């Protein structure tokens, strides 16, 4: 983690750079900042009951769509360990503007992705890797293997979406 002296130095450098390079930036005069290639993080907003706040997410995405950003970067790609071709297909569909097909595929990936990240975590990912012919291996301490009931619930998450 960067300490206060480093951040202070960065902040001073940025403010000098803006005042020197941007002219009357605060008043709207001077050159415009080219921020293409800079990708903003998009976080998922939640309600007080821990549900995804889709209204707020849509509002945030609408605001971001007015900014001159291009593309996206990053992700938690645990699901790609077992459904790699499908995750890559989702990216291809998005790149080629096939939004309806991308949305259908994304909806089929949500439940299994939640299962191997948030719901069952590493033990769930290891179990699904075994199912798909990869080596997931045993869990290391302090993690525990899935119980039979958890394993059945995990299997349901994949079969109900047509992956097993």
How would you describe this protein?
- With 164 residues, the protein is mainly α.
- It folds into two domains: 38-73, no CATH class; 77-160, no CATH class.
- Helix content is 52%, strand content 0%.
- The protein is built from six helices and no strands.
- Helix 3 (84-95) runs antiparallel to helix 4 (99-119) and helix 4 packs across helix 5 (121-131).
- The longest helix is centred in the middle third of the chain and has 21 residues, at 99-119.
- The relative contact order is 0.08.
- Mean pLDDT is 76; it is low at 6-27.
- Pfam families: DHDPS (PF00701).
- Homotetramer.
- GO terms for molecular function: oxo-acid-lyase activity.
Structural class: mainly alpha
**Fraction in beta strands:** under 5%
Unreliable runs: 6-27
**Helical residues, percent:** 40-55%
Number of domains: 2
Helix segment tally = 6
Reading the helices and strands in chain order gives HHHHHH
Task: Please state the average pLDDT score.
Answer: 76
Inertia-based shape:
globular
**Main beta sheet, described?**
none
Query: What is the β-strand count?
Result: 0
Please compute the radius of gyration using only Cα atoms.
22 Å
CA distance, first residue to last residue: 42 Å
Question: Could you list some keywords that capture this structure?
Answer:
164 residues; mainly alpha; 6 helices; globular
Provide a concise account of the structure shown:
This is 4-hydroxy-2-oxoglutarate aldolase 1. About 50% of the residues lie in helices and about 0% in strands.
